[in-house]
């Protein structure tokens, strides 16, 4: 007799729970709008329609390990230097590519020289003071990052825009300070750590 009453009581409680859940779901549905939903693509697998979405690639970088405090300080200093010059490298990409595209529309050598000289004066006026404050290490880093961002070395850009004589002159000056305008960015090799840091900066991780 008690078992029979227990079954009835359990059934009633279960029914109450279902009704309560239905009311809760109804309240939630009443507050939803179309902006709360996302349309996803679907695919067919074994006769079933399966919704799916493509998740953006997430790159996980291992935490660097240091053998001593000196290595840790060098790594921290490298991050500081990259954050200092990376914006200039990106700006160089924008300016150089824009100049290259505009020069392609000019018909005479005179127009090209006048345009290049005008842009050179504007860039020097805007960035000369900031660039003078860069350290030698930061200057070397900027040379490599320009190649990374534009796909061409600083030497090649100088030669294309200002001619071989100007490129040779500035290359000679750079060599005096232990730099090389022909340096290329080697992401898979010696510049891999720099490349990883830049990617982490772009991802907002550091």
What does this structure look like?
The protein has 206 residues and is mainly α. It has a domain at 69-202. The protein is built from 7 helices and 2 strands; from the N terminus they run αββαααααα. It has a two-stranded antiparallel sheet. The relative contact order is 0.08. The mean pLDDT is 80.
Task: Count the DSSP helices.
Answer: 7
Helix and strand composition category: mainly alpha
* Dominant shape: elongated
Radius of gyration: 31 Å
Tell me the quaternary state. Answer: single chain
How much of the sequence is in beta strands?
Answer: under 5%
Helix content: 55-70%
Number of strands: 2
Mean pLDDT: 80
* Sheet with most strands: strand arrangement: 1-2
Unreliable spans:
none
Order of helices and strands: HEEHHHHHH
> Main sheet?
2 strands, antiparallel
End-to-end Cα distance, whole Å, is: 70 Å
Question: Which structural traits does this protein have?
Answer:
single chain, two-stranded antiparallel ribbon, 206 residues, 5% strand, mainly alpha
Brief write-up:
The protein is mostly helical and 206 residues long. The chain is built from seven helices and two strands, in the order αββαααααα.
Write the layout of secondary structure elements.
Elements (H helix, E strand, L loop, with lengths): L1 H30 L9 E5 L2 E5 L16 H35 L5 H24 L3 H15 L3 H9 L1 H13 L15 H11 L4
Antiparallel strand pairs: 1-2
Helix pairs in contact: 2-4, 2-7, 5-6
